[in-house]
Every structure is written in structure tokens, then in C-alpha cells.
Amino acid sequence: MRFHSGVPEFPFLLRYIAFGALTRGKQSAFDHKYFSKRHFPATGGSEFAYQLDTSMAAIRIRHNAIDTTLDQLLESSDTLTFLMIRDGKIVYERNYGQADTSTPLLNFSVTKTMVASLIALAIHDGLINRINDPIGDYLQDIPDFVKRRTIQSLMDMETGIRYTTHRKPSSDMIKMWFHRDIRSLLKNLQPSEENDMFLYNDLHLHLLMYLLEQLVGDVSDYFYRKLWQPLSPESDAFWGLDSSSSGFLKGDGGFVASARDLARFGLLYLNNGVSNGKQILPFEWCNAMGKKGNSRMDKEYFDLYRQKGHAWYNQCFVNERTWYRNFWWQIDQGKERNDFFAMGILGQFVYVSPSTNTVVVRQGNSWGLDGWWPGILEKVVNG
């Protein structure tokens, strides 16, 4: 039996209990130490230039009816790193606690945008014909109702596959986080009662990672060779696995990287797929981010979150300014190309603002505030 910092890879219940005991039930940006990982070495990329904006620290932010500064907010919100890059240069940088902007940290659902980028590359390489193809055109050993789902619908988090999120071992969320063989679980998925609505569902990521496995073989190698290495990362990165024996990449939230290297990823999208003078991701794919198109923003589409009493509904969906497409959150600002962002459960962000030529990365050890980080980041970036 293999252990990682005291947590065994199996059996499932022992892994779940050991993880809960060692972490005291609190998720952390350092939780990757409890899982097997793939390693992606740094390439010694050039460091960012600095053009510090000393006025940033004193930016006034109204939060919970209290006026505060950006510095004060970050200090009080369990933030580990905060990095702002404008016009390709660092204008503001803060580090707290056990990390700095070169420390690899677990980024949870920011991982989803890495998966989205791999899908874009697979389409560009001719391995996937169209994003609107049913996933059953490529996978045969999954339930029939899942085969009918298009790749696009999975990437937009449309309902159709059951996904329970309570914290007990019987929930789909917990099973997928702690099971040592995620592939085996994909053969027994169940339909949901809801249709044509938004439901944030990590199972979609596992299905798409399984799809990528069938198309490219070693997804780790494909990721590093086609996407990560060309960014010239300055720190080592990692990607968590379900177990050492299975070797399945945790596409829902297992990617580990530093703030500076996440900023490089954000700049890749800001610059329409170009990094270090080379076209890494397709121009059309990156340039479409922040463009509204026909994506739904109406609160009825997000009504499951009202029914659950989920904080996202009042913080985000009720204003009908937010849409979700290709695993990126996007904000309607009435611009040709609006701000968009990747978001992790503990307040990990890669926030991209095309109109101000800015990328912001925030990594935290918890969400850290009673409020909506994207609204704060929008204000910080746009003034």
C-alpha cells in the first residue's frame, strides 16, 4: 500500500478518513502532498520585468459595508500570493505566509481551463472533428445517455449527468476526489432529473480527460510538450493523479503551479494564444474568450443555485452579467472582449482583462472573505 504524507491510496474509506484527520477537514493549497503526481520541470524561462505601481496598495475597496485598501484586504483574507501584470510587466505583487509567487500551489478548479486548452489543441491537431460532436463518437464504454452529450455541452456545464456534492463518502464529489480508479466510475454514471440548466459538475472533466487519453495516449506528455513547456515556466509544476497504479490525471482540480507561471498561462489567452513569439493555442479559441455570443446569462438558467441557497446565485447569477463557456467564467461589461477568469474553490484566480491588457493571479489557502472575489478583481483591474 502506498502512502502520501500519511494518506493511503486505498481503500477508499481509509483514504477519506485519513485525509480528513490530517487536514482537520479543511482544504488547503498544499493538499497536493497527499496525492501521487506527475511532474513538469521548469525550463528556466526569463523573469518578468517590473514596473511597480505604488498606488495599487492604496486602492480603496468597499467590502461588507467597510472601506478598506487592497493591501489590507489581502492581508486579512488568507491570501498566499497576489500578482498583477499589465502590459507584460509586474505592477503589483504580494506574498503572505508559507508561499511566494514562485511556490507551486494546488489551484483546484483553475485546472479546468488547462483541460479546456487540451481540448482546443486536440481539435486543432485533428483528433477531434468538432466541439459539437457527441462524446460517444469517441468513447464507447460509457452509458448511452452520456454518449449523446456533446463535448461543448460538457464544457459549458449543462445539466444531464447526476452530480451530488455533499461531504459524505457517498457523494459523487467525494468519490471522484478519493477513488483510486476514476476511469472505473465513469462506466456507471447516472442521469439527472434537470435539463437545460447550469450545474457545475466535475464529472465532465473526468469524461474529457478520459476522451483525451483515448486520443493522445499519454495526456501528461501531450500537456507538457504542447502547452506547458512552450510557456517557459520558471517553477516546477505538478498534476495530481487518482493513484499511482491508475495514473489518471485529476482534471477537476489537481493542477499545481506557481502564481508567476499561472500568469504566463493567463497571458497566453490575453495574447490570443501566442507565447514567446509562437502560436501555442489557436487564435480563434483564445480570442473568443470574453465574447458573449449566444451564451445564456439569464438567472433562470442558473436557478438550481437559487433552489440550493448557494452563495453563487446572489453574488453572481442574479445580476445576469455572468456566463460560463469552455470552463471559463466570463463577465458582460458591454465590451467587444470582456473580462474572463478561471476560479478555484479556495479563491484561486487567473483573471484576464483584454481591455486593460492585464492578468491577475490570486492564490489563497481559503476563500477568505464573505463576498465575491471576481467583483473585487474587476474593480481592481478596471478602476
TrEMBL record:
Pfam families: Beta-lactamase. This is CubicO group peptidase, beta-lactamase class C family. Residues 70-362 form the Beta-lactamase-related domain.
